[in-house]
Amino acid sequence: MKILDRLEEWLIATLMGAATFIIFVAVLHRYLSGLPIPGVQDWLISLNTSWAQEVCIFMFIWMAKFGAAYGVRTGIHVGVDVLINRLDTGWRDRLIVFGLFAGAVFTGTIGSLGAYLVYHLPSDQVSEVTEIPMRWVYLAIPLGSYLMCFRFLQVMVHFIRTGDLPRHDPAHVEGLDDEIAQAQEGKA
User: pTM of the prediction?
Assistant: First the structure.
């Protein structure tokens, strides 16, 4: 499970970092190309960053699908539980299990429909600018949705066994808490 967790985190972070870098370079290119600096201006104009927007859109699609699964696993996915938390424990627990199961059914259905779409997509369909096969772009739908379905089931089973739901602590920074604890031990 840790391998899947780390792969999910690595994929999201890599896509986010790469998209940010590509957008930065494209914007820098756009604004520096207009500066009247002989030689540099000619070189910048000769660069082609017309592909940047399309690639970043595709990266954000993948990031959003896998980010939603990460959100379910860590407890930061959107949920409205104000009314549910006011119910007695028996009804509250049943509604939580029902909600998690409904989320799994929904995302499993979306994953299956996405897999059908990818399978039946014409093999010659490519993106407009980069000419990436659209199958690779649309593959985010079944992969991300099935991962999200798995995360809903994982959280549901954990809740049934322990009664605990994942909670996100905004003050927690992974890896930093260990360093702080080690530093405090060193002072003592």
Answer: 0.81
